[in-house]
Amino acid sequence: MKLRIGACALVVALAGCSGGNPESGVAGMRGVAATQPSGTLPAALPLARAIGASIANAPDRGALLSYPDQAKAAKQEGAYTWYPTAISEAHAFKAVATGEMTVPSPDGSQVKLRYERHVEEIDGNWTWIGRVVGGDPMQEAIITFGEKAVFGSIPQASGKPALSLQTRNGRVFAVQTDPSKVVSATKGHVDMMIPEAAALRSSMGAAVSQSAPVSQGATMVAQGAPQTAANTIDVAIGYTPEFATANGGASGAATRLVFLVQVGNQAFVNSDVNGYLRIVHALQVSYTNTNSNQTALSELTGSNGQSAVTIPAGLAPLRAARDQYGADIVVLVRKFNTPENEGCGIAWLNGANQTAITAADAPWGYAVISDGYDQGTDGKTYYCADETLVHEAAHLMGSAHDRANSTAPGPNNTTVLQYGAYPYSFGYKTTAAAGNFYTVMAYGDTGQISHRIFSTPLKSTCGSGANLACGVANSEDNARSLNQTIPVVATFRATVVPLGKAANDFNGDGKSDIYWRNNQTGVNHIWRLDGRVQTGWGHVYTEADQAWKVISSGDFNADGKADVLWRNSTSGRLFIQHMDGYTVLSTSGSVDSLADLAWEVAAVADFDGNGTSDILWRNVNDGRVTLWTMSGRAPTAAVQIYQERQLSWRIVAPGDFNGDGYPDLLWRNVATGENFILYMQGTSVAAGSGLITRVSEQQWQIVAVRDFNADGRDDIYWRNSMSGQNALWLMNGLQVGTLSYVYNEPAAAWKIVNSGDYNGDGRADLFWRNTSTGQNFVQLYDGTQVLATSGYTTQVADQAWQVTGR
Questions:
Q1: How far apart are CA 768 and CA 759, in angstroms?
Q2: CA torsion through residues 69, 71, 72, 74, sign
Q3: Where is the signal peptide (predicted)?
Q4: Does residue 662 form part of some domain?
């Protein structure tokens, strides 16, 4: 299931949809068009699937949940009371646009949730995240929707335990918890092990880690920093048959795993940790569900910390998946059983005893967790928290427990403090007088407030009043530690699964493609590339009228695949071709037109961050700049954002230069050689815009604005049209972090005609074409280095064929 709902399906869900007559105009390009959304319906939609096929297919009647059985409990299991509920994914979609969700509880009360963000997965699962209006700012609602399951945690305004959404046997339940009957299954069990030879490495590693202390403020990061290869921990997950059965099969298991990962990522967001967990592969493994987690970790790793352990055949596919999919860490997930599992999870404590984490720790990137709850023989319900996965993952990144619960055997039957990677890599737990709360890495006591945050003194949002520091400087600061270790753990394996969208990626495989147009016959083709190798090609469309020009590509329907924006150079009409590989979709059609040809498309990018590309216009007569925010083929707003009357200033390209996730605008003055970055945030010009390094010689031309070093910020690639020199500016906001002369091609016939990520490594590459011979060359980059795998691809001698969609 990898389906996304387009604009028409959204209207079906929320308002009704009808097919119109085929658009007149460009012959063969047109198809049946969806009507535009009416009123204030969402301008774009998160990833989902056809609502009728979803378990959350209840109509939107103003609330997320309804209780068909008048809120009568279906079952009581220990501390948990299960209420069958109908759930409306359509209401969640609408809440993305309106900013508010209503969630009734079984007792008749309700909470209002303020939308903050949503996260889309390539497998069709998606997660809605928000907070209670007027409630505890430290408790967020996290709801993950899948085709056959929904899981969630929704805080209650009354301060009662969160309302849990669970899926069992094809039904969704709202589950209430009796706090007097539940006990955390983590207390009293070992949940971290020390890798082999850590003692031998500790003295040397401690010297390294102490030689370059990081200042307290150095780790502050912007919330929602863009996801890059440097801050993303790729995870391979294996799960047992019992876990799959408990969650309704493979589809439900996948939804549950996505929920657990997004709980972890929200903990990173809450803590200002610049990091992400990302599932790159999940599979069912043939392994027992009823031995101890410590035994399972030893067998998964192939070591118990002192000697080799035989790896069971059932776990071999999970270890193989780690290499195949480039997973930095591996997690085995099992249905919780007490007392058999002996706790909720266990992981290796990399960096133990203040040892520097290095690539040598990659063999210890394994963890085991239990999920769910089980009844103890004492009448109590033992449970594993939703934060268990990120808790154990943080051990792999050098984080220890709170000091009271971080102990190791010492001499003469004593105990000593068990350090993590740094002297401050501890969780935080306070007494009743000091706030009575604990953070993710701490072991809380009964009655304490649990905060989904890693210890950090830089946040003062903890405690019942949300006004206490969440850590202690240089003592309890897991967030600071994680910001230092995540970039290292993220290199345990090279990235295999591409991050995010690649430019001009028409089939959604994470690699850029090449869109060709023949300026004589009007035939259009797409090449698929894997590095320099052409893996396929296909005829897309023929448009003989040469007045129709391919202006740009962009994702206008939020399906993860590039579409094509056309404009008629005579009439000014616009047309968007929605693409799926080589196929032009029936949702393609005309867009509101601008007959005044003084208005030119200056940029196509997702300026408002809603998942669909927008169109930026500049008037070449008066310098006005107007942004059309788009949904499918429909402009949802037209906003004048700027005016530059001095027409020697030209918009070169969009690019995210400050790493805030929003495209900015790069301007160049063709008279003076000045360059300027206009910071954007949605439809507004943001503070901090300014001039960057001046390049007076006009033979230096900007030919690509892409992220060449995968740091989440776009860079600027220059070519000298006279000398053939090529220079790359690695950007950091308005500063040129590094200037490198990367290549020299004196033959003027060689032109850079496109750029993108052709090998799917998350770094920009270049596509060269010889305008004399028709040779084509793919130049692959890693930062400022040209890779040896660069090379010639298929030659196209006929110069009538031109590369478009740049």
A1: 15
A2: positive
A3: none
A4: no
